[in-house]
Write a structure and sequence with these properties.
Among the domains are: 101 residues, no CATH class; 248 residues, Alanine racemase (TIM Barrel, Alpha-Beta Barrel), CATH 3.20.20.10; 89 residues, Methane Monooxygenase Hydroxylase, Chain G, domain 1 (Up-down Bundle), CATH 1.20.58.930; 48 residues. Helix content is 40%, strand content 15%. It has 26 helices and 24 strands. The longest helix is centred in the last third of the chain and has 23 residues. With 719 residues, the protein is an alpha/beta fold. Strands 1, 5, 14, 15, 16, 17, 18, 21, 22, 23 and 24 form an 11-stranded mixed beta sheet that branches. It has an 8-stranded parallel β-barrel with strand order 6-7-8-9-10-11-12-13, surrounded by 7 helices. The chain has a 3-stranded antiparallel beta sheet with strand order 2-3-4. The radius of gyration is 30 Å and the shape is globular.
Length: 719
């Protein structure tokens, strides 16, 4: 099915007739651009095309971007960047890391300091000059470092404030973002701050073992189901002196751990995951509790302790772990879960286990909509409150039972890495249902003596009579007239031209009713979905399935905002459609201050000028979960840093998949394909269907296509 057809079906459904390779250390420029410079820039900033043509202080002046326009359209003087900031709630979900500068561009502040910022449009245009087109995933290494420090500081502050006598260690579950560079940065940034790593499979374990050879004291938590080889690797790592703790998920694993420990002569550190009775919260609430996929019941935990005692190894049981859920939005669930876990911990310690670590698992959420509310895409707590509650709850229970304070361990991967990634993509074009022109009179359309079908007359009258007082009447008349017209067309009593006019009149009537509704203090219930039904569809150069799979799979919300032109008032409302030939390849749910809206406010597209949109807080899960739907591969990835002079530079570029690479993933031999095309071309030359020069051009284009990006690379999308 074509993408355009899918889009039209999506927007029309509420009103259907039936009810129906790497480069390192690349400097961005010789001229630093500071936050104060950006703040001093006028609101009437050059647009994207002018920035590309004129230079912008970051080496982006080669003119390789979209062609410039002679003049900027008149802006709404009443609209400011502050209005855009409020509309998209950038400061709400940005948490100091994102804002809008005076030019109307979204900026990243990796250290939360207003004077240290990176203009996203500058980065995109700078990458364009380096031969990398959107879509592109931007990683901000300095932001990741700051986020890790914020988490550590929150817990260290809570420990100091409460007089807690234990330590805090964070481990990063690499399943959240397994990209080598991200894991390496967490490893390096966390070297002096107690950051460890968590693995959930044998491949992840082998990767982490090889990455931590110089830091044997770094905590490694091993979760997930384990077999002999997995346990043997863990045992040998412990033999090397690594601080590695396998967490028992079933009793079979316990016997394997003890067997290999005896075989290699070590005293292992052992952890156990317990299923709490405290119910989870949010979208993943069913991943915790007594029916959870992983973990032991309390009876099984006691069996583990008895088994170890029978072998004189009870001191090896050192860690208690649980999984309370992911993206927990309600702090009360955290408090209840930690309290129950701490109670189990002290009982095990009093029963003779050598308890040292209390691992509360993951679950710390991200405020995706910026509302800081008890909403599944938000959190009703701050980082500091989360840390303080955990420390206080554990301390209170331990003090009450006279048990030493344990080392607190968290595995909040989403909270560590979500904010450091931004996906930027360009808009290819738009489908607008309110673009239809209506004839001044029906006679002008059909002629004075023509017999006009009754449904056409009814639609014309409905369109002509639209007023605030008659909105519902005109809407009902338009629906009925369109249904009658479709019936007449299906039995051959209406021409194609007449059917097309019906379509134009119907959507023009809906648009006119919509415009009237915008002026009303309250809208009739039946018309409340009209805004989204008549909204635009903006076609975007990306694959939802590859780069934002959680939108498709679990209806996740991410903040999505134009990265420029925010000094202009957006005049369109739209849903977003991707490149895939799949009706699910769309975004029609957007964050809206602890609610969900069906359309996104966007700007009118301008001929010859590119329009860039960013999806924010996408650093958790999306990259590894992405698939190759329609063989759209990984996007380009750029790791961006900010130096001491407030100048952004590209630390590393990982080019996206080529067509040849994605074909190889699904077992095509690109070399053989090219050879077969060459043979066909030679046959065409021999039969005089093609000249030799034409054959050379085709082969050259084919081979270039195999080496090229899987996404669209046209110079101008909006002509």
């Amino acid at each position: 099915m074509s993408q355009t057809a899918n889009a039209a079906q999506a927007v029309g459904s509420p009103l259907s007739a039936a009810g129906s390779s790497s480069t390192s250390s690349v400097p961005a420029s010789d001229q630093p651009k500071t936050g104060s410079d950006a703040a001093a820039t006028s609101n009437a900033a050059p647009n994207a095309a002018q920035a590309a043509g004129n230079g912008n202080g970051n080496g982006n002046g080669n003119g390789n971007g979209p062609r410039p326009r002679a003049a900027r359209p008149t802006l709404d003087p009443a609209w400011t960047v502050d209005d855009s900031n409020v509309l998209y709630n950038v400061r709400g979900w940005g948490k100091g890391f994102f804002d809008v500068n005076r030019k109307g561009h979204v900026v990243v502040r990796p250290t939360k300091e207003p004077a240290r910022e990176i203009d996203l449009l500058d980065v995109v245009l700078g990458l364009r000059e380096r031969g990398l087109r959107t879509p592109v995933l931007l990683h901000f290494s300095d932001l990741l470092q700051r986020r890790l420090l914020d988490i550590r500081d929150a817990f260290e502050g809570a420990i100091k404030d409460n007089g807690y006598r234990g330590r805090y260690l964070a481990v990063f579950p690499i399943k959240v973002n397994q990209q080598r560079r991200v894991v390496e940065e967490i490893r390096d940034y966390g070297r002096d701050h107690g950051y460890g790593l968590e693995v959930g499979s044998k491949p992840e374990l082998l990767a982490v073992m090889g990455m931590t050879t110089e830091t044997p004291d770094r905590l490694i938590i091993c979760n997930g189901f384990k077999e002999d080889r997995y346990i043997e690797f863990v045992t040998l790592a412990a033999k090397l002196g690594r601080t590695i703790i396998p967490v028992i998920e079933n009793l079979t694993e316990l016997r394997l751990i003890v067997r290999y420990a005896e075989q290699y002569g070590i005293r292992p550190r052992i952890g156990v995951r317990v299923n709490l009775s405290t119910p989870g919260a949010g979208r993943w609430r069913h991943s915790s509790g007594i029916k959870a996929k992983f973990g032991l019941s309390l009876s099984e935990v006691l069996e583990v302790l008895d088994f170890l005692k029978s072998r004189g190894m009870q001191d090896c049981l050192q860690l208690l772990h649980c999984h309370m859920g992911s993206q927990i939005h309600d702090i009360r669930q955290v408090n209840s879960g930690v309290n129950e876990l701490a109670r189990i911990y002290v009982e095990l310690a009093k029963a003779g286990a050598g308890m040292r670590y209390l691992d509360v698992g993951g679950g710390m959420g991200i405020d995706y909509d910026g509302s800081q509310t008890n909403f599944e895409f938000s959190t009703n707590y701050t980082l500091q409150e989360y840390a303080s509650n955990i420390v206080y709850k554990i301390m209170s229970v331990c003090d009450e039972e006279g048990v030493d304070h344990p080392t607190i361990v968290t595995e909040s991967g989403r909270a560590m890495v979500a904010q450091q990634s931004v996906l930027v993509f360009d808009v290819l074009g738009a489908n607008r249902l309110d673009r239809f022109q209506v004839p001044t009179t029906l006679e002008a359309e059909f002629g004075a003596d023509a017999e006009i079908p009754r449904p056409v007359i009814d639609l014309w009258e409905a369109y002509s009579m639209v007023s605030e007082r008659r909105l519902l009447e005109c809407y009902h008349d338009a629906l009925q007239a369109r249904d009658e017209a479709l019936s007449l067309f299906s039995v051959g009593y209406m021409s194609l031209k007449e059917r097309a006019l019906v379509e134009r009149l119907f959507w023009a009537t809906c648009a006119k009713i919509r415009d009237k509704c915008r002026e009303m203090p309250s809208i009739p219930e039946e018309l409340q979905d009209l805004e989204s039904a008549v909204s635009d569809t903006y076609f975007c150069n990306l694959s939802i399935f590859q780069s934002l799979p959680d939108i498709w799979a679990i209806s996740q919300l991410f903040p999505i905002v134009p990265i420029h032109r925010l000094d202009e008032k957006p005049t369109r409302k739209a849903t977003l459609a991707d490149l895939t030939c799949d009706s699910d390849g769309k975004i029609d749910r957007f964050v809206d201050d602890h609610d969900i809206k069906k359309t996104l406010e966007l700007h009118e597209l301008r001929e010859g000028e590119e329009y860039f949109i960013g999806a924010f807080l996408v650093g958790a899960y999306q990259e590894t979960l992405g698939d190759l739907h329609n063989l759209f591969g990984d996007t380009h990835v750029a790791h961006v840093r900010l130096d001491e002079n407030n100048q952004w530079w590209i630390d590393e570029i990982v080019e996206g998949d080529s067509v040849r690479e994605v074909l190889h993933y699904v077992q095509y031999d690109a070399t053989r394909l090219a050879m077969d095309v060459r043979k066909e071309v030679e046959r065409a030359v021999r039969s005089k269907a093609m000249t030799a020069a034409e054959s050379h051009q085709l082969v050259k284009a084919y081979e270039a296509g195999l080496a090229g990006y899987t996404y669209l690379e046209c110079e101008s999308h909006l002509d």
